[in-house]
Amino acid sequence: MTSRTVRLWSLIHKWSSLICTVFLLMLCITGLPLILHDEIEHALDTSEPWVPANPDGPMLSLDAILAAAEANRPGEVPLFMSFDEDRPVVNVTSGPTPDAPGSQMYFERFDRTSGEIVPAPTGDGGVMDFILQLHTDMFLGLPGMLFLGLMGLLFTLAIVSGVVLYAPFMRKLDFATLRLNRSSRVKWLDYHNLLGIVALLWMTIVGLTGVVNTLAVPMLEIWQNDSLVDLTSEYGDTSVVTDLTSVQSAVDRAREEAPGAWVQFVAFPGGSWSTDHHLAVFIRGDTPATSHIVTPVLIEADTGTFAAMREMPWYMKVLAFSGPLHFGDYGGLPLKIIWFILDLFTIIILVTGLYLWLAKGQRKASASQDLNIAEFAE
User: Fold this and answer.
1) Which of 67, 228, 236, 334 has the fewest CB atoms within 10 Å, i.e. the most exposed one?
2) 115 and 55 share one domain
C-alpha cells in the first residue's frame, strides 16, 4: 500500500469516526441497559407474581377480549392484538384513529381467563422507555431514526477503514502488542487497536443491524405499496372497514392456512401493518430457525374470508432478524453478557479514538509553539 493510499484511508477513518463518535457514544451508553432490559425490569418489579383469575378455566374468545378493551377505552379503535407466550394474556393496543401515531396509542393487558385488566409491572418502565426512545430516534421520529442510520453507516466506514489501516500501522509489531512502557498516547493507541480488532465482528454486526432498524418505517411503506397493492386495488378508494368480522374466527381461519405455527399478533384495518380492508394475522414459525420470521395471513375484515398468505419479502426478513440480533436478544443471558462486554469495549474504543485525536492536535500545537519560540529567540 502506497503512502498516498494510507493517507487517504487515514483521512476516511479520521473524519468518519469524528463525525459519528458523539452519537455512537450515546447509542452505546443507552444500549447497555437495553441489552439487559428484561432483567432490569424484572429486578425492579416489586409486585406479586401475577396469576390468572381462573387458571384451570376455559379461555375467553378473542372477541370477548376485544369487547373488554373497547369498554375500557370507549371511542377508540383497536390497532393491534398480541399474545404473551408464557401466560394467558392478550395485549390490546388502541388509538383514536386506525392510523394513529405511536404517541397516541394506548396499550393494555387482559387476562384471557376472565377479561380483567392485568396489572402492569411496577418496575420503572418510564426510565427504560425514555432510554429506548433516545436510542431509537432521539425523540425526533423518522428524521431522528434516519439520522442515526447515517451515523451507523459512518461507523461502518470507520470500522472498514480501521481494518485497512491496521496492517500498515502494525507491520513492525507483533499482533496484539501493548507498548506499556511508552507514552500515554502510544499506550492508548495500542489499546484502541487491540480492542478494535477483538470487537471487529460484533461492531460490524451491531452497526449494520442498527442501520437496518432505522429503516423500519420506509421498509413497511415499501412492503405495503409493493407487496399488498394487488390485494387493495379491487376496493378502489373505499374507507377503512370498521364493521369487523369475528376476530376469533379470523385467527382460526389464518391458523388453518399455517397449521402448527404460533400467532404473534393481529393488525387491524387501517394501520401500517395491514390494509384498509383486511385483518392481518401474523403467524410466527415455531422452530428456532423460523421463530423470528412472521408470515401475514390476510383475512377480509368484513366477511372473514381468507384473502391471501404472503411470505414477507427479503428486506422484511432482514428487518425481523435485525432487532434481536442488534440487542443479543435471542441467546439468553449468556449472550446478553457477551453483548454487554463488547458494548463496553466499543465505548472504550470510541473514547480512546477521541483522546488520540485530541492528543495529536495538542502535540501539533505544542510543536508549532516551540518552533515560534525558537524563531523569536533567533
Assistant:
1) 236
2) yes
Shared domain for 175 and 190, answered yes or no, is yes
| Sheet containing 262-267: order of strands | 106-111, 89-95, 77-83, 262-267, 278-284, 294-300, 306-309
Whether residue 167 sits in one domain with residue 30: yes
Among the listed ranges 29-38, 90-99, 138-147, 330-339, which one has the minimum average pLDDT value? 330-339
Give yes or no: residues 36 and 52 share one domain: no
**Do 66 and 30 share a structural domain?**
no
DSSP-assigned letters across all residues of 158-223: HHHHHHHHHHHHTTTS-TT---TTS-HHHHHHHHHHHHHHHTHHHHHHHHHHHHHHHTHHHHHHHI
End residue of a domain, out of 102, 120, 138: 120
Q: Please give the residue range of the domain that contains residue 54.
A: 48-120
- Distance separating alpha carbons of residues 153 and 217, to the nearest angstrom: 18
pLDDT at 124: 53
SS3 annotation, 208-240 = HHHHHHHCHHHHHHHHHHHHCHHHHHHHCCCCC
| Boundary-marking domain end, from 59, 94, 120 | 120
Query: What is the reported pLDDT for 4?
Result: 86
**Residue type for 187, please?**
K
- The structural domain count of the chain equals 3
pLDDT in tens, 247-280: 999 999 998 887 767 888 999 998 888 888 899 9
366 pLDDT band, cuts 50/70/90, is: very low
- At 375 the pLDDT is 34
- Could you please report the per-residue DSSP string of 49-115? PP--SSTTSPPPPHHHHHHHHHHHSTT-EEEEEEE-SSSSEEEEEEESSTT--GGG-EEEEEETTT-
Average pLDDT on 138-164 reads 93
